[in-house]
Amino acid sequence: MDLLVSPDLLARLDGLLAGVGFRRVIALGHGSHRFYFRYLAGEDLWLKLDIVSDISFGYFQELGTDLASGCLQRRTALGPLWLPQAQDQAWLQILHLVLDKGEVASSRVPAARSAAALASGADPVAAYLDRTLGDGTAEELLGVLQSGSFDEVPAKAAALKRIWTGTRVPPWLVSSTSRALRRVGPRLKGRGPVVGALAPDGAGKTTLLHGLRSGCPLPSAYVYMGLWSSSPQDRWLQKIRGGFLVRKVFRILRAGLAARYHSLRGRVVLMDRLAFDALLPGSQARSRLGALTDAFALRFQPRPDLVLVLDAPGELMFARKGEHSPQILEGWRNAYLELAEDIPSAYILDAGESASTVRLKATELLWNVLAGTKAVEEADTERLPLHLWMLLDWRFLLPVVRPEKLGYGGRVSDDAATAMLLLDPSAQRLEPADGQAPSREFDVVLLSEPDKPLFGAAVESLKPGGWMCVQVRRSFRFGTGPHTLAGWKHAMERAGFDDPAVYWHVPTLERPARFVPTASRTAVSDTLSHYSRVRFGKAKAAIGRLALNLGLFNVAAAEGTVVGQRAREAGRQELP
Fold first, then answer.
1. DSSP-H helix ranges across 134-204
2. Phi and psi for 561 in degrees, rounded to 5?
3. Is residue 531 very low, low, confident or very high in pLDDT (cuts 50, 70, 90)?
């Protein structure tokens, strides 16, 4: 999802996001799009922000508009979040499908229908279309979507693009320029880091580097620097005096120049082997010319920002590749470990672990270099609070920025309980009432899968005007309380809460990527369309749409949060 910001923020945007750990990737030919990335090691998760300062359509953002300022002025608040006005959301969705995609795919039909039902010809975006493309354009486009004639969308999209006006630069020129600029490719802001891997054969260097490259969304390049590796030409080179030495110099130049080029282009350089191999015992050159080429290789290779030394027993390396012998490989293993002590940027990884575990640890080390973190220990202390803050995402559903007194109860994990202390150092765990009258001291209470007694105690412990979040799953167990989100909503209403709101958690309660307000038909429809491609997703989406049409989505939703504010005058608790 694009994040729209005012152009006045652009000058400060890099600094603001760098302050919270994001690294910018510059991608020319993408209009006003600015891309920022951050890696969360504890979750093995890459975060990407796609920020724009104007609203343009088309594959190359060639169809410019002046809609951004109006959309920002008409934005509406959803708790602490700002969203486009509902009608603006609908029209932007329609134009995205028609002008960006050029068609309405079957998976996007529900979203298109919902947007067309909400939009009207009297909306500001519709007025803009009529003003720039001719009267009746908006109504005609709405008519195509509302009638379900989605096979007409490609022709309609092509017609709109042909007559598009309102931009000082012709769309065809913007498109051609952007197409050419995209050939340059994305790059990091500044020089790209150089990462090398050292280990004997069979430790998994190549597997690790290719895993890093495929799992990392940042621009990267793989460079092989095997100075002494064999090749099919060896039988000819051995007949030429100095042939192997010439090949070695060629490889030094080729790998060194390639690594420097990619680094200057702002790419992460992943080097398979390094010239440090020349420092291993038994690898020293026996001639003055060979020693000179070793020294040249050490000086010419770019200085690595991170050296990954893979450590595995000789027996394991022999079993993996079947080359040399376990004894020889064990000797090389010890030599690499000794060499690592003399390389300041070297980190030893246990290559006996699974490939995914080694890749995860290596990715964390790579991100430490990109983020400017000097040591793994420093990264761990930085990551822990962020990991805990992610367990507090429910706070975005409340208008309370920081509670004065926080209570919690139910199935709250140890990490989540520790996270509560970030909001309130004196946060307390709630227990079911023991007969004593609870004091009304909390202004925010979080409950995770509570039963009836705990819910009752929490209600009585909450100040009038305080807020409660109840995280629940659909359950068919008897005696535990309401079984659905709808049931918990009714329970909160009976307990004296004003107009509780229900949020569907997608995909799971513990790790939600979205909090979907079930009161918004458009938000639910769009989410069902988005998740129709997961396993059994089409069936689940069909059931969800049926429940939505019947007004039973709060019954069908599997897990979510019910949020409500207790009335200023204490209400009465009444659970079935």
1. 137-146, 153-162, 171-182
2. -130, 135
3. low
Task: Say yes or no to pLDDT of 237 above 80.
Answer: no
The DSSP code for 100 is I
Least Cα distance to 368 among 39, 136, 73, 14 occurs for 39
Rounded to a whole number of angstroms, the distance between the first and last alpha carbons of the chain is: 42
Beta bridge partners of 23: 37
Query: Would you place residue 25 in the very low, low, confident or very high pLDDT band (cuts 50, 70, 90)?
Result: very high
Helices (H), 372-520: 376-390, 414-423, 452-461, 485-494
Q: What angle do CA 65, 68, 69 make, to 5 degrees?
A: 120
Average pLDDT over residues 201-207: 87
pLDDT at 364 over 90: yes
Backbone angles phi, psi at 71, to 5 degrees: -65, -40
Alpha carbons 493 and 450: distance in angstroms, whole number: 16
CA 457 to chain centre: 38
- What is the rounded CA–CA span in Å between residue 416 and residue 414? 5
pLDDT at 380: 39
Which residues lie closer than 8 Å to 118 by C-beta, 6 or more apart? Answer: 86, 87, 89, 90, 522
User: Contact 67/85 with Cβ under 8 angstroms?
Assistant: no
Integer-rounded Cα radius of gyration of the chain: 30
The amino acid occupying position 211 is: G
- Give the residue from 370, 321, 32 showing the smallest Cα distance to 193: 370
Contact between 115 and 522 (Cβ < 8 Å): yes
Residue 115 and residue 93 in contact, taking contact as beta carbons nearer than 8 Å: yes
pLDDT at 342 over 90: no
Q: Is the peptide bond before 507 cis (omega within 30 degrees of 0)?
A: yes
How do beta strands 442-448 and 406-410 pair? parallel
- The neighbour count for residue 498, using CB atoms within 10 Å, is 13
Q: How many CA atoms lie within 13 A of 543 on its CB side?
A: 10
Alpha-carbon distance 319 to 54, whole Å?
A: 57
- Burial group, residue 367, by CB count within 10 angstroms (0-12, 13-18, 19+): buried
Closest CA to 560 of 491, 499, 492, 486: 486
Sort 172 into a burial class: Cβ within 10 Å, 0-12 / 13-18 / 19+: exposed
Rounded to whole angstroms, the Cα distance separating 460 from 569 reads 12
Contact 24, 189 (CB under 8 A): yes
Residue 399 has pLDDT above 50, yes or no: yes
For 51, the enclosing helix (H) or strand (E) is: strand 45-52
Query: What mean pLDDT comes out for the span 341-359?
Result: 89
In 3D space, the residue among 193, 203, 187, 201 whose CA is nearest the CA of residue 223 turns out to be 193
Reduced to 3 states (helix: H, G, I; strand: E, B; else coil), residue 189 is: coil
Two tokens, residue 483: 């079984």
The Cα 402–Cα 423 span in angstroms is 6
**DSSP state at residue 101:** I
Which tokens in the block code for residue 326? 């376990």
* Average pLDDT estimate for 317-331: 84
Torsion sign over Cα 530, 531, 535, 539: negative
**Integer Cα distance of 558 and 512 in angstroms:** 13
Biggest CA–CA distance in the chain, Å, is: 97
